[in-house]
User: What shape does this take?
Amino acid sequence: MPNDIKNNLTDSKFFLLYLKTVICFFFILVFIVASVNYKMDPEKVYTNFFKIIKSKELSSTDFIEKLIQSDNGIVMKNYIWNERDISYTLAGYPTDAECAIFGNSSAIQISSLRPNKSLSKTCSSLINLAVSGGALEDYIAITESIIQNKNPPKTIIISIGPWTLNLNRDSRWLYYKKNFTTMLNKIIYNPNDVSKSFDKIESYNIKLIKNLLNLEYFMRSLELLTSKNDFTIELANEFNYNLGLGHVVLLPDGSTIPSNKYITTSLKRKIDGTSGNQNYRIIPGKWYSQNAIEILTKFVLYLKKNFKVVFIMVPSHPAVWNFSEQPVVTAMKIVEPKVHEIAKSLEIQVIGSFNPKKIGCTEEEFYDEMHPKDLCVSKLENVLLSY
Amino acid sequence: MLYNSYIFIFLFLPITLLGFHILRRKRYYRLTVSWLIAASLFFYGWWNPIYLGLLVGSVLFNYAFGSLLLKRPYKLFLSLGIIGNLGALGYFKYGNFFVDNINALFNNNIILEQIILPLGISFFTFQQITFLVDTYLGKTKEYNFLQYCLFVTFFPQLINGPIVHHEMMMPQFAKSVLGKLKLENLTIGFTTFIIGLFKKVIIADNIAIFANPAFNAAKHGFDLTFFEAWGAALVYAFQIYFDFSGYSDMALGIGLMFGIALPFNFLSPFKAKNISEFWRCWHMTLSKFIREYLYNPISLLLTRYAIGKNFGHIGVFILSIFIPPMIAFICVGLWHGAGWNFILFGVLHGVYIVIHNIWVKGSNMIPKYKKIKETNIIKIISRFITFTVVVFSFVIFRTESIDVAKNIMESLLGMNGIEFVDMFQIGVFGANPIMGIAWITLSFLIVNFLPNIQQFILNQSRVFINWGDAILNKPNQVIKWKPTLYWGIFFAIMLTLSIISLSGTNEFIYFQF
Assistant: This one.
């Protein structure tokens, strides 16, 4: 056999071995990553959080009961929670709270338990059902739980952010898509008219599959895997709310105190109003959709049958307002009057404003561009309009 | 469709590759080529099917003019062909810019709807102009329509280059040659693709996080300090390099999986010792196009003119040394985008080249310099100066307006203060200075001390070796890829890391051009 043919055959053997190695190891590694993500599931998107708790003989109601009865809340160690699960269960749990807050992360500080009490003129006590990335779809899904509550709050406070008057801006609500659909059927005469708006979003199942191969999720899964006492519920001892603890603390009213690391990092960081995440979910030009407004209107009309409904707007950092050409500033300038217009047509109250100057919030009263501290939040009622 | 997307990696590429090799093995040549063209059109149409019409129209237009020029090589036909191409490019790429400037200059209010720039228009337009010019000059032969279609639309180079030349591509699409399945090609191509994917997803996208805040701050009127500005400029220079060279590596790798050698686009540009060398190593196919089809003809024409008219030393200098590079680099700037910042980028590089040319002429007259020119210390100094001026110029590339570029450039020159204390407070490295510095250091080490893609792997590929002049670097003897178990495991880890990082991935910077 000529030498070059012989060499080619030897080369081919090595190339084949190499290719097999790359492909086999790749699939093994991918399988490991996906398995760890699925098994540890730090956000509990594959397995229901309360199912795990249940296996430790603690039902979902027990968990919320523990939370409500605790003096200082629960330390949310290792992120072994899905906040949407917690909010949904808390919404259905009978408490003496007068108000329930629907909102996103900028409303998560609203609390009746902190020294700087929020919304004291409107509610003597409240439960905060706000979730990260909370959108109109979340509010509707959580309502499905609240209407089953035997002793529900009397007032529903709906937080409107600069991007809330749109649909599909965040996909996390798909976690409880069934609850959303059930509720949408109740509030809208013909849900098919609006269901088209939700068709464009990627299937939640595809998102779940992709998430199995997500590095960030994998790092959190590893963190969970290597930590001890994974699923134990740790009650918080008395602590300084301004300093926080090692992990996020969920207060008995559902509001949260950020972790110490988050608080100290925010203190170190000079907020210039431009370099943060202030334009989150804002799409220039698409400031609000008529479809979303229509759903919100029908949603409020539905709620008004049994609850008092109030709109609330939480301000953004004063530095953000220094740069008027930023999409978020335009969004806030357009959406705020729109919120008032909707409130006027529905004859409901509006509390707060996107503009910190109107409320009296200073730069020090923010964690970052979009998240006010409790002191700022406690001043929201400085702007209160009844229609 | 992005190379760094699940749909491309797990569906489009394997299906296209499989279909291609099945058809090729059955010796259905026309079907094989048609399959590749159909896949390429699908790839292009994924972004916006409407613009498929533009691509197909462009192919038909140029093929018709090419055929006409083959039979009747008249200047008129060539001019019409070029005008047609530049007209489409001008409308889609420069229409809004032109109208905005006319409005500003004459206080008019002409309204032109916002034109969306079709993906890859600059690439396929230049590619086809080359074809027309060479056909006119008699450098091409008759190609069949399918081959021509594939030459323009072949998806690995379609939307982000490299700008391919018919001389290199057409022979590879010939019936006797097209895509012979060799494990060598598949293996080296796949490994090159992994390297490109890693560069893009792991390095470029991660380093981008540290570039954006400072540029955003400057955009909103903040004066960056000297260190902030240099930190941001460095980070951006590395980001754009890893982004674009990552894309080019992926393109080369995919091409090779089909048995096709695409031209190299990068050759360790940050190791360049002068600005002329930098442009021979950075976006090489664009540089080659500009050099061969613009710079050389203009330079020749003007030099002859200056000598013929006896303009004297200064006249000859202006017409032969100054004007040709300025025109060429203004075109390079404009090729990248319709904006004054891109024109300024071109002007700056034109000035760099002029200074370099003067330096070369001047230093050759100093006998002592000739002796020390090749010493290590001079090489290091040359590299440092070249790298610094290039990083400086990229600032204009990143900013959207001249005012912001001016602001950052003033900071780079220390005109806005040199404070070290506050550099981590805002901007460059945000709340994570250690990571920012780590990424800069890592990038610096990679670009300076690791072999480039040719030295590491591609000059072991016979497909590339066959294209002799494509291989410009000798293999690196220290770090050199071999089809071994260890390298297999290493690249499996690299691929896994890239795949699990895809969820936070961004578009390629060069898509906008």
Residues 3-40 of chain A form the longest helix (38 residues). The radius of gyration of chain A is 24 Å.
